Amino acid sequence: MHVPDGFLDVPTSIGTAVVATAGVAAALNGARRDLDERTTPIAGLVAVFVFAGQMINFPVGAGTSGHLLGGALAAVLAGPWLATLALSVVLIVQAFLFADGGITALGSNVLLMGLVGVWVGWFAFRAARAVLPRKASWVPLAAAFGAFVSVPAAAATFVGLFAIGGQADIPIGSVLTAMLSWHALIGIGEALITALVVGSVVAVRPDLVAGARDLLAERPLEIRKQVRA
Q1: Which end of the chain is more exposed for a tag (fewer CB within 10 A), N or C?
Q2: Is it the case that residue 222 has pLDDT exceeding 50?
Q3: How far apart are CA 22 and CA 18, in angstroms?
Q4: Distance of CA 20 to the CA centre of its chain
């Protein structure tokens, strides 16, 4: 979903850059509450995983590319504030070192993946958790739902930006069809990968999953007595 240089006009690019900057600034402030000895390594690992996943691109038409976003996965594992920062760092590195996504479109890409992808995925995850049983074993399913919803949501946001300031001579209907159809399929793959990764971490170290920590706090304390012969 990386937006290339020149695909959106200057006013739209400036507007998305302002929104992205404000979002990253808010994430920096919010992340101060989340950083500890558990979340810091997880945030780093999430950034590496997302970076690797996003480097696998394929064209979806209208001059854009499709790939895994990783926003919901990052939010569930590290929390949404740290996830926004991790995705932003990944996108900056990709733009400046790998020419993946335009530098002038960096604000647009951070908005689409670091804000919309992360926060829509997080809120969808929380909504799913609200109706599912309050057990850690259900967290991967809720995470999969968040991942599935986040991908077409980011794609739809891009279509809205293109309708406002798109520079390519492509009918908006063609852009909408290409983006939503392909990213619906990507959403299914992302949901499966997110469920597998979150499920693996929950099974071994549920305390490392930001989206499951409140469930651990609700567990009753068990005290086992040792009987000596």
Answers
A1: C
A2: no
A3: 6
A4: 14
Q: What is the C-alpha separation between 54 and 82, in angstroms, rounded?
A: 18
CA of residue 155 relative to chain centroid, distance: 13
Q: Which two tokens stand for residue 172?
A: 């908006």
- For residue 153, with 0-12 CB atoms within 10 Å meaning exposed, 13-18 middle and 19 or more buried, which class applies? buried
- How many Å apart are CA 110 and CA 98, to the nearest integer? 16
CA-based end-to-end distance of the chain:
66
- pLDDT, tens digit, 9 for 90 and up, residues 129-173: 999 999 999 999 999 999 999 999 999 999 999 999 988 788 888
70: tokens are 């990783």
For residue 206, give the DSSP letter. G
DSSP designation for 70: -
Q: Is residue 65 part of a domain?
A: yes
**Is residue 140 one of the residues assigned to a domain?**
yes
Question: Does position 28 have pLDDT exceeding 70, yes or no?
Answer: yes
Give 84-97 pLDDT, tens digit per residue: 999 999 999 989 98
Which range marks the domain in which residue 60 is found?
10-212
Q: What is the gyration radius of the CA atoms in the chain, in angstroms?
A: 19
Instruction: Compute the C-alpha angle 48/52/55, nearest 5°.
Output: 140
In a domain, 93, yes or no: yes
